[in-house]
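re: ur question from earlier - yeah i can do the single chain one, its not a big deal. heres the input i used so u can compare w yours
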Amino acid sequence: MERAVGVRRISTVGEFLEPDGEMLKALVCPFSKLPLTYDREARELLSPVGVAFPITANGVADMTPASARLVEAPPDGGEQV
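and the output i got, formated as tokens:
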């Protein structure tokens, strides 16, 4: 009797998942309520008021105030989401 065995990858350790683009469009800065810009290189969402929110390794935006950091000036190179 033969059995087919499939291999399925169940771990993404060491990989960064991209955030869902449609979900990012719905997010706004929790402080200013303004749209965010996605900085792919830094893996952050940037608010026009100078606050950055990290994107976790599994592609989820961490929008908690404790995880936010102040940036001097929002860079011009991000993508509007």
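The first strand starts at residue 37 and ends at 39. not sure if urs matches, ping me
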